[in-house]
Write a structure and sequence with these properties.
Elements (H helix, E strand, L loop, with lengths): L2 H20 L7 H10 L20 H11 L10 H14 L2 H13 L4 E4 L15 E5 L2 E8 L10 E7 L10 E7 L5 E6 L8 E12 L3 E2 L5 H16 L8 H10 L6 H28 L6 H24 L16 H5 L6 H8 L9 H11 L22
Parallel strand pairs: 1-4
Antiparallel strand pairs: 2-3, 3-7, 4-5, 5-8, 6-7
Helix pairs in contact: 1-3, 4-5, 4-6, 6-9, 7-8, 7-9, 8-9, 9-11, 9-12
């Protein structure tokens, strides 16, 4: 390790120790602690100074997270994961200084929770085919349309919104990115009940919603590039290394404690091998991101983890046998902050049902495979007759 890296690590350790000394987690309100963490540059150490960071290497953030967790400190990402992992990097990469100062601190301390407003009923997995329109009106934009599958929209304050601002351009070039006030007039959130009983996902209707141009991130009609930053961070979020037990470890614990048929051994071995490979891919992805050379690991990890999680939980229910039918309740219940905190502790049966969404959310498995075949393996892409047509001339059902 070079002298600079050593001194940077020392600075982070010193700042972390000072934070814990001056704001003991046991005696400091959680919001006050997170505000002090942000001001100390320990929210995201790789962000610029004054914006929750120190301008250092991103791998040093893990040292902060581990030390604060050991001390029982609150986690700024815990109940605002979409904002923390996807919104903040997008604002830093594409936002102006005023937007960075406006959004980052409230996001981190929990004053504003974020959701994503990308998917639409008529666009399917083709994000560039979205129809929600924004029309310029002086210093504002008037937005009309519908979004769907918006996680946590019922409890969110800011929505990462992509809309069509120029239908005469090809579909990838006529999009613009905004940060929407979810409490603005004309924004209606309708929860979608899932088979778990929760209403985590939502559809969002936008009717003559006024969005100030100051909430636009990036240039007009350049929203596709901004959205790609958000989506890449989303795939990293789904593939992020977790310290708690993964699905294969949970399956192994259950396997050891149960009567099992010999054929289940082969399935358990397969799950364990896939889990080890997936974890190594995550480590490689983190190393490449640290070195500034991100590769396809995000798409690989998202694809593998989603399918591994489904298979492992299905295996768990097979081990449970008749007990797998003992679901607590299908009664609808609101998606709240408390349910956010309890998600990872959910019953295996509930986790199995919830896992069916994982090959859809964050980019379907089919889309992930298409990305890998086109951009990594260099296979011939599928024919796209609409790529250069103005969006207004593309036939749509």
């Amino acid at each position: 390790m070079g002298a600079t890296a050593t001194s940077d690590a020392g600075l982070v350790r010193e700042r972390t120790a000072e934070l814990l000394r001056d704001h003991p987690p046991a005696r400091t309100p959680w919001r006050d602690f997170l505000a002090a963490q942000f001001d100390a540059g320990l929210a995201w150490v790789h962000f610029p100074i004054g914006l929750g960071g120190l301008g250092l290497a991103p791998q040093l953030q893990r040292d902060v997270v581990l030390r604060l967790a050991e001390a029982g400190a609150p986690d700024g990402a815990e109940t605002n994961r979409l904002g923390y992992a996807m919104g903040a990097p997008t604002v830093v990469a594409w936002g102006d200084r005023a937007q960075q100062e406006r959004y980052l601190r409230p996001l981190f301390v929990g004053d504003e929770r974020w959701c994503q407003l990308f998917s639409e009923p008529g666009a399917g997995s083709d994000l560039a085919g979205l129809n929600t329109r924004a029309v310029r009106d002086g210093d504002d934009w008037i937005v009309n349309g519908q979004k769907v599958w918006s996680s946590m929209a019922t409890i969110s304050d800011i929505g990462m919104l992509i809309v069509r601002t120029d239908p005469e351009l090809p579909k990838h070039r006529g999009l613009t990115y905004f940060l929407l006030d979810m409490h603005a007039p004309g924004v209606e959130v309708r929860p979608l009940r899932q088979m778990t009983g929760e209403a985590e996902f939502n559809e969002v209707y936008l009717t003559d919603v006024r969005v100030p141009d100051s909430a636009r991130v990036g240039a007009v009609s350049a929203g596709w590039k901004v959205a790609m930053t958000t989506l890449m961070e989303e795939r990293v979020l789904f593939n992020r290394q977790r310290d708690e037990k993964g699905p294969a470890e949970i399956a192994l614990d259950l396997y050891h404690g149960r009567e099992r048929a010999p054929e289940l051994r082969t399935r358990m071995i397969d799950l364990w091998i896939r889990a080890r490979v997936q974890r190594l891919n995550t480590v490689r992805a983190a190393a490449n991101r640290t070195a500034g050379i991100p590769g396809p690991e995000g798409s690989i990890g998202k694809l593998v983890y989603a399918e591994l999680n489904q298979d492992a939980l299905e295996f768990c229910l097979d081990l449970l046998g008749d007990e797998s039918l003992l679901y607590d309740s299908y009664e609808p219940h609101a998606y709240t902050e408390e349910s956010l905190r309890r998600r990872d502790e959910a019953d295996l049966r509930r986790r199995f049902l919830r896992s069916r969404a994982q090959t859809i959310e964050g980019g379907t498995s089919e889309i992930m495979r298409t990305i890998l075949s086109d951009r990594v393996l260099g296979l011939p892409p599928e024919p796209r007759s609409d790529k250069h047509l103005p969006f207004s001339q593309i036939p749509r059902g």
